[in-house]
Write a structure and sequence with these properties.
By secondary structure, the chain is mainly alpha-helical. Helix content is 53%, strand content 11%. The strands form three sheets. Strands 1-4 form a two-stranded antiparallel ribbon. The chain has a two-stranded antiparallel sheet with strand order 2-3. The protein has a two-stranded antiparallel ribbon with strand order 5-6.
Length: 259
């Protein structure tokens, strides 16, 4: 399983081709649905681990049934990533000395001390970010191929025997954009602002303007917006206020021309 978006983009065509060789025609949507399910499970297993360990003390990180249950999914799904994130100390046997009746001293097993689990949070966080980016890539691909699949109830045969086919485009990021048109408008803006040293100002401006124009949701968390931008290799870590953004007239003109 690929663990970065760059790796995934390099290899997915080979995976798709291999899948196509084994199945009937028109299988691409099924391929992306399977990929979506697999990477959703992978991402969820990472998030479950992050949620569980973030407030645990060293004492709470001893191997036990609860921890084993939390981490076992990731080991099944992607063992190399599991080995990167976790360092698991071996269980120790506690011993003591006891004097025997014959005058000799021997070791006596007192019990077992469970090993401790160390978590590399930086690697865990990086893998979560990468998994989310791969999921967005897969979602976009699935949305594209689904545009060419016409549901039966969208096909009407007229009296002359011709078929009226209508395909409704779906919004690939419904948590952020209120409509498919809002998403395509953002893509137009991204084509104008591109990926430059001015990303912080440009995409802070886009964030405020699209929210004011009721194109993105008011309750969107900034982190969601950052993660979404990151799928395009645009990285910002905060949102500037409109008052702090320079060259507003220039950016306003770009925004207006993209409409």
């Amino acid at each position: 399983m690929d663990v970065t978006r760059k790796e995934y983009e390099k290899k997915y065509n080979k995976k798709l081709s291999s899948y196509s060789d084994k199945h009937e025609d028109n299988i691409e949507p099924f391929f992306w649905e399977i990929e979506l399910e697999n990477y959703t499970n992978y991402c969820n297993s990472l998030l479950k681990i992050s949620d569980y360990f973030k407030n645990k003390t060293s004492k709470d990180r001893r191997v036990n049934a609860a921890i084993t249950d939390i981490i076992s999914d990731l080991k099944k799904i992607n063992e190399p990533v599991f080995n990167e994130i976790f360092t698991i100390e071996k269980t120790k046997v506690a011993t003591g000395k006891v004097e025997l009746d014959n005058g000799f001293v021997d070791d006596m097993i007192q019990g077992y001390i469970p090993g401790k689990i160390e978590v590399d949070y930086e690697k865990l966080t990086n893998h979560i970010t990468s998994a989310k980016r791969i999921l967005m890539f897969i979602s976009d691909k699935l949305m594209i191929v689904q545009e060419f699949i016409v549901p039966e109830n969208d096909i009407d045969a007229s009296e002359s025997g011709t078929k009226d086919i209508s395909v409704k485009a779906e919004n690939p990021h419904p948590r952020i954009f209120k409509s498919y048109d809002a998403f395509t408008f953002f893509e137009k803006l991204m084509g104008e602002f591109r990926n430059t040293v001015n990303n912080l100002s440009n995409y802070s401006f886009v964030y405020h303007k699209m929210m004011l124009d009721d194109l993105i949701y008011q309750d969107i968390k900034q982190l969601e917006y950052f993660d979404f931008l990151a799928t395009y290799d645009i990285h910002i870590s905060r949102i500037k206020s409109l008052d702090d953004i320079g060259k507003k007239q220039f950016r306003e003109s770009i925004y207006a021309s993209a409409k």
